[in-house]
């Protein structure tokens, strides 16, 4: 009585009806060249040289593969197998991909497959000028009742040492090709491992683990079980049962034709029979030995078991990947269409009339978009989708650098060395002033000297402003006319000349700004307010010091009136001494007054200078140059469009060969995507496109201001979804952290940023002259001071209230000495 078919064989038969449409679909996509653009589900056979890869493929397909020692497989070989109805004839064909234009080779019998593979491999290697091909593959298509519905990709074996006649580069070429497939998340690795080798030393498993750490897409097959040393079977069994070096997809074991059987040319049918007999009768692997559980024998041992698992695995992977593949096909089709349109599409002008119209269209759009970009109106699709073309925003970066650079030159007015230097300057400028009067030339001389230190920063700002405008202009021209380098070059030359002349012209305006600043003057009352703030700060420091200096003896005793009188007398005396020292007729008081005035005017002057420079560049450069650009561009278009200058038009619209090639590539890609989507639709499979690893995010309720366009082109454009707005620090209930300062940075400055008052600062950063700070140790621990000064004192000495230099509810007389208050 004949043995019943194995469960794995029955499973393969049952699977064929469901597997064939899926596998056919992927093969169709691959025939359209889709694998050039996105990875497709596939099973790649990998392993060391002479590990038995060809033998495994022979056992599965029933056809011989090239054999030998060393690097036999010199390019990728794709084996596409289709099960035919019982009684159908065996048919096969061979070709190369990408297709070289040659017709597929029809194969008459299975024995011809190896020779054809060798010939096509030699042809590919000769075409690439080497002993190895990394860019093409040999494709073998088989149809027979005896093959499974399965597609496998055979890769060259891992090379460790180049042998005689091989270039050293073959090692890197082969390993690079293997790594390429290992990294593709849709590629299942079929690792071929000789069973008589220690699995811990197998290179392909190490490589697969690097690309697939969890082993989720790696399945291994153990070959050559007849070569296992006696007594070593238990260690191999541990591997086969997935207990040693476990993989999520597990292991299988096959016995293929050995060298002696190859030389004897035994048939594949006989090889299958001998394999079955080996696993049934072997002393260790046999069914009577019971080392392999009976229920697992049909999934672990034999070619049929391996084939059934591979077919099931491939179908499962394809079904899971189809939604993401459809999404990627749709997305890449849209990108290819946009790229083709951007590169000119089908509308390339081919006669003088169309060229004149195209020239006017380019200069019109260029002039309009330059003005919109300079004014910060980014409603047009091109500006909305390209941050580099937003001129106003890039100018703001230049202005911010100017503000930071000027702010960084602020002297340390509170530093003792500065006050000593200022005292020497005041003494050196002393003239015939009466006692009590201060020579104002000290103030003027100091400001004039420091104002000149700002000139390099202003010059750098001007240069950066002009250069940024030229860069944006160049990028905009290339975006508007990417296929016509001569046209872009001609307009660029015209525009650059205008902008450089405008940059030289605005320099004279900036010199006027410095001329005005060189004669210090202001009617800005904020200077008076700042003077009062500084003086109040100094008074608070003095009062705190006086209160802390009340002697303990004045607070001892039972007579409250005496204690209060003693404390009051002490405070009065000390405050009087402080007043005479700082407001009397003496050098120290004059130095302090001068420091206060210099500090207050510095704040006014720096802000005014930055504002004046920015407004001058905006008005006298941007507005002037934009108007000049519009006039010059339209005159250029009108002059080039006259009938007598047809030669000029033809030169301007001469297309760049590289761009022509890019447009051709975009069109071909669009065709591949359309053919693939058509094949997907005609397959009868109901597939809903879904982005891989997609996370559903609630759509924003409205588009952000400035990104609404009325341009007709925008209706068909793909808009990038703006990310949801992150809740502000105030909404989260925490003080908003300021951006990092240029000079005040590092871990030591983080506490300082956290001490900025959350509501009383116009700008929450550490740049500038003064900021309002708040300490958490008291409700009124607030003070105004330069961030650099606070930073220099350090975290333990930051708060003047905590140091006793400023009065607060936590340290006032009413709190510390109620009797005195």
User: How many helices does DSSP assign?
Assistant: 25
The major beta sheet can be summarized as:
9 strands, mixed
Q: Which class of secondary structure composition applies to the elements?
A: alpha/beta
Radius of gyration: 41 Å
Percent in strands: 5-15%
Instruction: Return residue spans where pLDDT drops below 50 for at least 5 consecutive residues.
Output: 1-12, 694-743
* Overall pLDDT metric: 79
**Secondary structure tally: strands:** 11
Report what the structure shows.
With 821 residues, the chain is α/β, with parallel strands linked by helices. It contains 25 helices and eleven strands. It has helices at residues 7-31, 53-61, 113-128, 169-183, 203-211, 233-240, 259-263, 268-281, 294-300, 303-342, 352-374, 381-385, 391-407, 416-428, 441-452, 455-480, 485-517, 526-548, 560-583, 587-640, 646-652, 657-682, 750-754, 787-793, 813-816, and strands spanning 42-47, 76-83, 91-97, 105-107, 137-144, 150-154, 187-194, 218-223, 251-253, 771-774, 782-785. The strands form two sheets. A nine-stranded mixed β-sheet has the order 4-3-5-2-6-1-7-8-9, sandwiched between helices. The longest helix has 54 residues, at 587-640. The chain is elongated. The model is unreliable at 1-12 and 694-743 (pLDDT under 50).
């Amino acid at each position: 009585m004949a043995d019943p078919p194995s469960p794995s064989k029955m499973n393969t038969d049952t699977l064929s009806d469901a597997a064939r449409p899926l596998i056919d679909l992927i093969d169709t996509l691959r025939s359209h060249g889709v694998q050039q653009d996105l990875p497709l589900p596939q099973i790649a056979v990998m392993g060391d040289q002479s590990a038995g890869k060809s033998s495994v493929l022979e056992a599965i397909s029933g056809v011989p593969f090239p054999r030998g020692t060393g690097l036999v497989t010199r390019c990728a070989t794709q084996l596409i197998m289709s099960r035919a109805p019982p009684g159908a004839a065996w048919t096969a064909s061979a070709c190369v991909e990408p297709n070289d234009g040659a017709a597929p080779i029809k194969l008459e019998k299975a024995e011809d497959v190896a020779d054809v593979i060798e010939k096509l491999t030699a042809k590919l290697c000769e075409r690439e000028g080497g002993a190895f091909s990394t860019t093409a593959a040999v494709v073998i298509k088989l149809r027979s009742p005896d093959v499974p519905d399965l597609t496998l990709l055979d890769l060259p074996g891992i090379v460790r040492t180049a042998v005689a006649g091989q270039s050293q580069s073959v090692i890197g070429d082969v390993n690079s090709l293997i790594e390429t497939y290992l990294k593709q998340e849709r590629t299942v690795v079929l690792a071929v491992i000789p069973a008589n080798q220690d699995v811990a030393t197998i290179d392909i498993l190490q490589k697969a683990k690097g690309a697939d750490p969890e082993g989720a897409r790696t399945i291994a097959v153990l070959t050559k079980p007849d070569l296992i040393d006696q007594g070593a079977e238990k260690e191999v069994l541990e591997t086969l049962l997935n207990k040693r070096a476990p993989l999520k997809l597990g292991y299988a074991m096959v016995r293929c034709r050995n060298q002696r059987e190859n030389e004897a040319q035994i048939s594949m049918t006989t090889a299958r029979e001998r394999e079955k007999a080996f696993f049934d009768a072997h002393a260790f692997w046999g069914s009577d030995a019971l080392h392999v559980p009976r229920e697992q024998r049909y999934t672990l041992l034999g070619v049929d078991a391996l084939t059934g698992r591979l077919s099931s695995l491939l179908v499962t992977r394809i079904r899971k990947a189809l939604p993401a593949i459809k999404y990627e096909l749709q997305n890449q089709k849209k990108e290819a269409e946009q790229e083709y349109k951007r590169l000119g599409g089908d509308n390339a002008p081919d006669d003088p009339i169309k060229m004149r119209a195209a020239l006017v269209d380019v200069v019109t759009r260029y002039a309009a978009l330059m003005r919109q970009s300079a004014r910060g109106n980014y409603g047009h699709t091109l500006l909305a989708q390209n941050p580099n073309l937003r001129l106003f925003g890039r100018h703001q970066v230049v202005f911010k650098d100017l503000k930071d650079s000027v702010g960084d030159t602020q002297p340390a007015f509170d530093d003792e060395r500065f006050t000593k230097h200022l005292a020497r300057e005041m003494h050196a400028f002393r003239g015939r002033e009466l006692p009590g009067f201060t020579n104002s030339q000290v103030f003027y001389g100091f400001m004039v000297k420091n104002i000149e230190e700002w000139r390099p920063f202003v010059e750098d700002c001007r240069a950066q402003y002009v250069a940024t405008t030229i860069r944006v202009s160049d990028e905009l021209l290339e975006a508007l006319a990417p296929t016509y380098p001569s046209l872009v070059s001609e307009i660029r030359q015209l525009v650059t000349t205008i902008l450089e002349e405008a940059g030289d012209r605005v320099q004279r305006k900036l010199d006027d700004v410095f001329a005005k600043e060189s004669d210090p003057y202001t009617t800005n009352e904020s200077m008076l307010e700042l003077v009062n703030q500084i003086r109040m700060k100094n008074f608070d420091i003095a009062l705190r010091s006086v209160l802390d200096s009340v002697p303990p003896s004045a607070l001892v005793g039972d007579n409250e009136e005496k204690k209060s009188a003693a404390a009051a007398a002490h405070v009065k005396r000390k405050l009087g001494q402080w007043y005479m020292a700082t407001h009397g007729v003496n050098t120290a008081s004059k130095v302090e007054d001068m420091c206060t005035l210099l500090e207050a005017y510095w704040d006014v002057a720096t802000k005014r200078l930055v504002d004046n420079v920015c407004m001058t560049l905006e008005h006298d450069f941007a507005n002037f140059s934009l108007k000049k650009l519009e006039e010059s561009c339209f005159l250029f278009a009108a002059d080039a469009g006259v009938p007598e200058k047809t030669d000029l038009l033809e030169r301007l619209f001469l297309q760049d060969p590289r761009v022509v090639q890019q447009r051709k590539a975009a069109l071909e890609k669009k065709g591949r995507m359309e053919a693939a989507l058509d094949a997907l639709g005609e397959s009868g499979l109901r597939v809903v496109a879904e982005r891989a690893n997609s996370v559903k995010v609630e759509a924003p309720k409205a588009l952000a201001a400035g990104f609404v366009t009325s341009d007709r082109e925008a209706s068909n454009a793909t808009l990038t979804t703006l990310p949801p707005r992150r809740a502000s620090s105030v909404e989260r209930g925490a003080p908003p952290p300021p951006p990092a300062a240029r000079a005040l940075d590092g871990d030591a400055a983080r506490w300082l940023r956290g001490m900025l008052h959350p509501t009383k600062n116009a700008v929450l950063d550490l740049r500038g002259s003064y900021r309002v700070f708040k300490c958490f140790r008291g409700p009124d621990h607030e003070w105004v001071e330069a961030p650099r000064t606070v930073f220099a004192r350090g975290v333990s000495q930051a708060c003047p209230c905590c140091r006793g230099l400023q009065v607060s509810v936590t340290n006032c007389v009413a709190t510390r000495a109620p009797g005195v208050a």
